[in-house]
Description:
Elements: H1 11-33, H2 39-46, H3 50-53, H4 55-67, H5 71-78, H6 80-99, H7 104-117, H8 121-132, H9 138-166, H10 171-174, H11 176-191, H12 205-228, H13 234-256, H14 270-299, H15 305-329, H16 335-353, H17 362-387, H18 396-437, H19 441-452, H20 457-495
Helix pairs in contact: 1-8, 1-9, 1-11, 4-7, 4-12, 4-18, 5-6, 6-7, 6-8, 6-11, 8-9, 9-15, 12-13, 12-18, 14-15, 14-17, 14-18, 14-20, 15-17, 16-17, 16-20, 18-20, 19-20
Amino acid sequence: MSGAAQAPLRGGALALTAFALALGTFMQVLDSTIANVSLPTIAGNLGVSSDNSTWIVTAFAVANGVAVPLTGWLMGRFGVVKTFSVSVLLFTFASFLCGIAWDLPSLIGFRILQGAVSGPMIPGSQALLIAIFPPQKRSTALGIWSITTLVAPIMGPILGGYISDNYHWSWIFLINIPVGLFCAFVCWQSLRTRETPTRKLPIDQVGLILLVLWVGSLQMMLDLGKNDDWFNSTRIVVMAVIAVIGFAGWVIWELTDANPTVDLTLFKNRNFLFGSIAFCLGYAVFFANTLILPLWLQTQLGYTATWAGLVAAPSGVVAVILTPFVARASGKVDARILASIAFVAFGISYYMRAGYTTGASEWDFMLPLLVQGVAMSTFFLAMVTISLDGIPPERIPSATGISNFARITAGSFAASIITTAWDRREALHQSHLSEAVGTGSPLQAAREALGRLGMTDVQAAGAITRQMVGQAYLLASTDLFRVSAWLCAILIFVVWLTRRPQPPKGPIAAD
């Protein structure tokens, strides 16, 4: 796409530019996960609860998801090189603002800005990597890009945890500054003479406003609902009504506008419809569990942020090792089989987690994540192959934009839903445990045992309460892991509602 009439780069220039472009993808993906393990630290430092701190994750994801459909218009209007370079610079500036945030509202506001300006970074780096490599080396370009997208989620929790434990949390954002400046400088210097043709394109302003309106209202409803007692709150009801009306208006507008922001007619394609449903729901379950596990480890089991990040590392390592083999086999194996393998592996991983106990070791936590790594290695490639099957080449950019938007937005919604469900299940289990313990002999026996250890009645009561809360959160977590496993089993059937994709004529890029 970029620089199609010019010769590919070679030698040191190719290596340096490819490295800089990979860093662009790395930074964007890293920032979608780096804050996950740091939420308890940030919440404590800013004086807010851990459940409110999840806005730091969801704000970035929603803003990024809404910005993605604009990427095609921006690249057509200003050129891929300029759009990508400016996006990286703005992302770097937004990272600086996140690092100097003084309270939770300011941090959330800057995360929204960071997510919004980063929309073109992933598709831009992908397009430019393809352009600078010779046609016969395109698989190498996409291999670099794909492995980068898998390494970043591994490094995010580890890096975020290490920084939170040893430095001020603001450095999880400030480390983007030198990386972003280097990436933007190298890419602009190497690629500014290879800019793509630009043309004046109409922008669907009404569609974009309606999109921001309904997505933003729905996300705020999901984030605020748990603290506002849901539909007993007037503002939650108002947000729900705005979301429903906004969504209906947006769908009608996009189906009738000549130049829609999101081309919804693509859903007439069976594979795109069912493939997108399975892709979004599968990613939503994955993203929700990626968020809830480190929160549980740190808030209830006493893990440091560093160790919570290290527990999550095996899944990414396995995915990076297996991905090249899966990519090689993808042209020969039915993508529906690969997708089914992914959902089976995800389901097994979640089901294994449903057997966790409060005395689980690091190995007990890591083993299910090794299985999850198998799922990650096949999931993205298989779902993109299925979703894009039968889409004409000229509509591929629009299709990938919709796929990215739907997937990222589904992940942000899932993050809000699972934290709400986690707290509600904990409250339910705690009430059941309190009833079981009661005020009779079990409670008295426990108090006497703790008294013999030197505790006063008040200390004993506090210790018993802490044990009940910890057990309630354990039961809440295992409930959600079990539900996630069943959802993955159901999604296997959704995958088989699609037709068999035609073997790809060239390498397919993962979203």
